[in-house]
Amino acid sequence: MPHDFSKLINDIRARSKKRKDSLGEPVEMDERITKEFKEKFRLVAVSEKTYVIAVAVHDKAELNDLVRLPNRGVPIGGYIHDCVSNYCGINGLDYLNLGYVPIAFKLSVEGVSRWEVFLPVPPAILISYLSQEQQTDLKSFSDTYDKEGIHIEFLQMIE
């Protein structure tokens, strides 16, 4: 039976909204341009695997340390990648290697040849692709860090 991750997902969504709010005011864009962009984006699920690491992060940056994560591919997102030591770094408290999920997503733009980029899988979708064992491990890890001021983030890498 799948675990109920609604609290974790709601926490991640709330933090995501705060990040959007902190980016500043969006510039007004003609609705026609916005519509054109949306019509030309192509989001495709691909068979490449995504390696997932759950990271417990404290809201107070000074309480986090540099957590060195094993490199399992190209990280998707703004993480430190030390090519010499072959690790990725993120500020946090602890981490859990969840392993691979059998899907990845690419974004391209129609009419722009050869441009495509891997996108991080949103947490709710990512959790739905976890195996039962991965879900059990994540539930145990998130319960350990179910404290005020601590949240779970997901570092994702493509092989």
Question: What's the topology here?
Answer:
Blueprint: H1 6-22, H2 31-40, E1 41-46, E2 50-58, E3 65-70, E4 74-76, E5 80-82, E6 87-92, E7 94-101, E8 104-109, E9 116-119, H3 123-128, H4 132-144, E10 150-158
Please provide a written account of the structure.
The chain has 159 residues and is α+β, with helices and mostly antiparallel strands. It has one domain. The chain has four helices and ten strands, in the order ααβββββββββααβ. It has helices spanning 6-22, 31-40, 123-128, 132-144; strands spanning 41-46, 50-58, 65-70, 74-76, 80-82, 87-92, 94-101, 104-109, 116-119, 150-158. The longest helix is centred in the first third of the chain and has 17 residues, at 6-22. The chain is globular, with a radius of gyration of 17 Å.
Quick tags:
159 residues, alpha+beta, 4-stranded antiparallel β-sheet, 3-stranded antiparallel β-sheet, 4 helices
Question: What structural class results from the helix and strand content?
Answer: alpha+beta
Please estimate the helix content.
25-40%
Approximate shape? globular
Q: What composes the largest sheet?
A: 4 strands, antiparallel
Backbone CA Rg: 17 Å
**Quaternary structure annotation:** single chain
TL;DR?
This protein is an alpha+beta fold and 159 residues long. It is built from 4 helices and 10 strands; from the N terminus they run ααβββββββββααβ.
